[in-house]
Amino acid sequence: MEKIETIINKFPFFRGMDKAHLEKIAQVAAPVTLAPGKIICEDGQKADKFYLLMNGRVVVELYSPERGDLLIQTLNTGDILGWSWLVPPYQWRFNARVLAKTHAIVFNGERLRTLFGKNRELGYELQKRFLMIIAARLESASIQLMDLYGIPAGDKNK
Amino acid sequence: MTILPELMAPSLYRVHETRAETKDTFTLELEPVDEGAGRFSFAAGQFNMLYAYGVGEVPISLSGDPEEANGRPIHTIRQVGAVTQALCRLKPDGMLGLRGPFGTGWPVDEAVGRDVVVMAGGIGLAPLRPALYQLMRWRDRYKKIILIYGARSPEDIVFGRELAAWAKGKGIEVTVTVDRASAKWKGNVGLVTTFLAAADFDSAKATVMVCGPEIMMRFAIKEFQKRGVAERNLFLSMERNMKCAIGFCGHCQYGPSFICKDGPVFRYDRIKDLFWKREI
After folding, report:
1. Cβ separation of A99 and B194 shorter than 8 Å?
2. Is any Cβ of chain A less than 8 angstroms from the Cβ of B215?
C-alpha cells in the first residue's frame, strides 16, 4: 500500500509541502472508509480530528428543530473536512454526514496540536493552509447568504 | 444608417407549446403566424424582443437549438414583473410579438479544438443552452466540455432532466450545485464558483463562457483568472435595460458599447475596465 505521505501529497491541500512535514503529519494519520449515512461529527462535540476526502461526498449541515437539517455545503474529492480542531474551544461547529461512500484520511488533530509545540514551522505551514480554506468557506457562505439568484429590483419592471 | 423596418415592428407569433421549468420559469416554443415566414435563424447567445400585447416588451434570450430542424424560436422566461408574467401566462395558440434576433453570440466556432468550460447561474443557463446544444452536436470538434451550473435550490434548477441526460451521456462533464437545500437533496451544495477548482481542463487552451447574476460572474472571472485563463478567452453575457434593441435609445449603453448590438456576449478583455465599476 502506498505511504500516506505519498497519497496526501497528490491532493491540492498538501501539495508542495515539505517532505519532512508530510512525514510528521502521516504519522498521525490513517485511512478510513465512511459509509453513506454515517454521522462523522456533530455540532458541539469535541473536535480532535480532520479529514481529507479522497473520493465520495460529505455534507456539512446544521440541525434546526423547526426546519430539520439545513445543508450548508457538500465536500467532494480533495476537500478537507474539519478546522474546528485548530480553533479553541476545539468543538465541532457543524454536523457532517456521509452522502456517498467516502474513502478518507483521518488526521489526529490533538496529536498535531502537541506536535506544533515542538515544530513551529509545521504548525505555521498547516495553519496557513487551513486559513485559506476558512477564508474561502467564509466568502462562499457570505455569497450564498446574498441570494445571488433573487430578482434584482430593476427586473421587476420587466 | 438604414434600419430594416422588421427590426422595429414586431412580427406576430403564436405559442406552439409551453413548459414549466420551475414554479416561476417557463419555456415557450413559438411559431410565426405568417406561414410564409422563413425559418427563424439565430446564433447561440442572441435574444429577441418579445411583446406581450397591451403590456409591454422585454428582451429574452433564445434558449433552443439553433440547428433544430423545425426552426421554432424557443425562449425560457423567468416571471419577474408584469410583462414576463403576461408572457408566462400564455397558453398554446396565445399571441405575442417578436422582433429579432439581436446581439452577438457565443464563440462556439472560435472554441473549436479547445477545452470549453461553461459556467451558469440560475436562469443564466437559458442563454447558454443553445451553445451547449451546438457543442454537443459537433462534439468531435472540441476537447473537453465542462458545464458547472448553480441554482438557488433544487426546486430552482432549470432544464433538470436535460442536465441529468447530459451528465449520463454526450461526452460532457456536468456539475450541478445549489446554494441551499433540505436533507432530501443528495447533490452538491455550495457556491457555483467553488466547483471550478476540481474541474480538470487546460487553462491555456480553454474557452470559457459565463452567464448568470453579475456578481456571480465577477467571482467566476476571479476564479478563472486564478486558474490562468487568459482574459481574451473569457466570454460573458451582460444584461442591462434593453429597450429598442437596435442601439438607438441608449438605455443599454455600456461605456462606448451598447449591450443590445455590441453584446450581450462580450469578450472580457474588452469590458474589463467597466466591469468592476459600481456606476458608469
Report:
1. no
2. yes
3-state SS, residue B144: coil
Whole-complex ipTM: 0.84
Q: Which of A149, A151, A156 to mutate to test the interface with B (most CBs of B within 10 A)?
A: A149
Q: Is B230 left (phi over 0), alpha (psi -120 to 50) or beta?
A: beta
* Mean pLDDT by groups of 10 residues along chain B of 280 residues: 72 96 97 88 96 96 92 95 96 96 97 98 97 96 98 96 91 95 92 92 97 92 95 94 88 91 95 86
End-to-end CA distance of chain B: 27
State the smallest CA–CA distance between residue A61 and chain B in angstroms.
9
Per the CB < 8 A criterion, the answer to whether B268 and B235 are in contact is: yes
CA pair distance A48, A112, nearest whole angstrom: 9
User: Is the peptide bond preceding residue A88 cis, with omega within 30 degrees of 0?
Assistant: no
Contact B229, B206 (CB under 8 A): yes
